# Entry
Amino acid sequence: MENLSNISVIKEICQRFGFSFSHSLGQNFLINPTVCPRIAEMGGAGPGAGVLEVGAGFGVLTHELAKRADKVVSVELDKRLLPVLDYTLHEHHNVKIVNEDILKVDLRQLIADEFPGMRVVVCANLPYYITSPVIMALLEQRLPVDTITVMVQKEAGDRLCAPMPSRECGAVTAAVRFYAEPETLFPVSRGSFMPAPNVDSCVIRLNIRDNPPLTGKEAEDFFRLVKGAFSQRRKTLQNNLSSSLGVSKGAVAAALSEAGLKSSARAEELSLEEMIRLSGLLQPALGAEKG
# Structure
C-alpha cells in the first residue's frame, strides 16, 4: 500500500478520485505515521480478533488493523470514500466496508454476522462532533466487545477519562464509568492531521465491564439522577436534584444524609459508587412523586 501518511500521496489520491474534505463530516486525516500502528496494537487487534472500525477515512487505520486482526469491518458514512478505499485497501482480503451511519446500524446483528467465534474490539478515529453520541451508543447497546479504543479531541478525552470525584468530571464521565473502566493511552498533536484542526487529540481506551452495576429500572433512575446532578454545575446537588427530578428538597436532603454526604455537596464531589447509592436512596421518593 502507498504511504497514506504522506501528504503528497493524500493529495494525489484526492485529485485522482475528485475527493475533497468535508467539514460537516469532521474529516481530518492522519499524516503522522506512528499513530495508527499504536492504536491498532493498544486497541487489541491481533490473531483471533475481529475489529469494528467507526469511519475508515482513507484507510490508514484500517490498513494497520487488517495487518493484525483476523477481520475488520469498517462502518463508513461517506459514500464518496468507497472507491478510494477500494484502491487503498485492495491488498487486504479481510476488510469489509459498510456504507452506513454508525448511529443507525444494528451493531449487535452486524457483530453476530461478521465476527462469529471471534473476540471483538472497537477502534476508531472519531470526528469530534459525534464523539459522545457514538461512544454512548456503543456502550448503551451492551455490545459483545472487549474494548473501545478511540482517538478523540483532548478536551473530550479528559472529560471521558476524568476520575470521580474531580472538577473535570461530568455527566458523560459518570455514564462512561458506569459501563467501562476508561484510560488515556497517549496524546496526538494537531499537526498529525490534514487538514490540521485547531485542537490537540488523544487516544483513550474503554475497558468494558462484564456487567454494569445496575440494570432495568434502577439503571434508568441512575441516569436520570446523573443528568440532573450535573445540570447546573454551580448549584448544589440538593438544588439540582430537587428541580430536575421533581422531588422535594427534604427528600433529597434525607437521602444525602443517609448516604453520608453533605447538604452542600456538588455532583463533581461524588464517586460513582456514591451516585449509585444516592440513586437507590431516592427511588422511593421518585416513585411517590410519580404516584
